[in-house]
Design goal:
With 326 residues, the protein is an alpha+beta fold. Helices cover 23% and strands 20% of the residues.
Length: 326
């Protein structure tokens, strides 16, 4: 039967109605993305002159900037949403109604690999590990920001404008409301439980129950959240809690790669998806980082856009079982 579940991390409600996946047109199948045109790929190795000058790169063999020989390369976004020198907008006559501030911050593109491939799943697990360590490094470079958001969009249906696998980093001058809400819930939970960590305790209980666990390795646990918003949504949580992803320590790269390969096998191809790192925002005394992966297999419609309440047509327990089998 349908249920309304409450996300323990955000407090937001999700309607889980698993039987709706069996209605006409409700199945899950993904067509492969078309192959990349390597000659037109501005992020491919050898095309360094097609991007802004790099600000960071991983070059095991050394060499000058903006030349081949790199494993991961970081450049400013050519069309930045935020900029360090963003001008201050003209003050509005009624700031209570028309608030505005300068869009200061950083916006970078992290090219995850030199090979012209469209998904992290197509890379070797070792290359994914190199990419995530580069994410950590660039997040540390923006330590003064109120919040640093690193995310990946794969395929045009999930918002990617260029198919070559890459992440984007936003160094925000404010803490987004949804993240501030989680910060409050982490703090309130710690106050109620004499300093316990909300996500650490949640993970221990999920491991004890096992019904939503997908896989476990030495660094992290992969599970489908209790109140997953979308079919096959997954969450990667470190086995040893750490507030900030960017601090030195394991990244969970091998299990993230495993997650993406499981999705590929279950769905027939790598799906359109969004993934992001949730790290500690400014002012968080209690936190644990995680990585959220949201395949885009259904469309957001009037319920989601009009109320902010998601309708998930696949029960998280069933999704976890199918990903374990994959």
């Amino acid at each position: 039967m349908p249920e309304i579940r409450i996300d323990p991390l955000s407090g937001l409600k999700v309607v889980v109605a698993g039987d709706r996946a069996t209605r006409p047109g409700g199945g899950f199948a993904v067509e492969p993305a078309p192959p990349l045109d390597a000659a037109a790929d501005p992020f491919a190795e050898g095309h360094e002159d097609r991007t802004p000058p790099e600000v960071y790169a991983v070059r095991p063999g050394g060499g000058p900037p903006d030349t081949p020989g790199w494993q991961v390369r970081v450049v400013p976004n050519l069309y930045p949403a935020l900029a360090p020198d963003a001008p201050t907008p003209a003050a509005e006559a009624n700031p209570d109604l028309f608030g505005v501030q300068a869009a200061t911050g950083g916006h970078e593109v992290i090219v995850n690999a030199p090979e012209p491939v469209g998904t992290l799943a197509e890379l070797a697990a070792e290359q994914v590990a190199v990419a995530l360590e580069a994410w950590q490094s660039r997040m540390r470079a923006h330590a003064g920001a109120a919040y640093v958001h690193v995310m990946v969009n794969e395929r045009r249906e999930a918002g990617s404008s260029l198919p070559h696998t890459h992440a984007q980093l936003y160094a925000l001058p404010f803490v987004p409301a949804s993240i501030a809400r989680e910060r409050e819930r982490f703090g309130a939970y710690a106050a109620r439980t004499m300093g316990q960590n909300l996500l650490e305790d949640l993970l221990q209980e999920e491991v004890r129950r096992r019904e939503r666990i997908v896989a476990i390795d030495d660094e992290a646990v992969l599970l489908v959240p209790w109140a997953a918003r979308l079919p096959f949504q997954t969450m990667l949580v470190p086995r040893r809690p750490r507030a900030r992803f960017e601090d030195e320590g394991p990244t969970g790269a091998a299990l993230l790669h495993d997650c993406l390969k499981r999705l590929e096998r279950r769905l027939g191809a790598s799906p359109p998806l969004n993934l992001w790192v949730r790290t500690a925002p400014r002012g968080a005394e209690h936190w644990c980082w995680r990585i959220d992966v949201l395949p885009r297999l259904t469309h957001l419609a009037g319920l989601e856009l009009g109320t902010g309440v998601h309708l998930n047509v696949l029960a998280p327990e069933r999704a976890a079982a199918e990903l374990r089998d994959a």
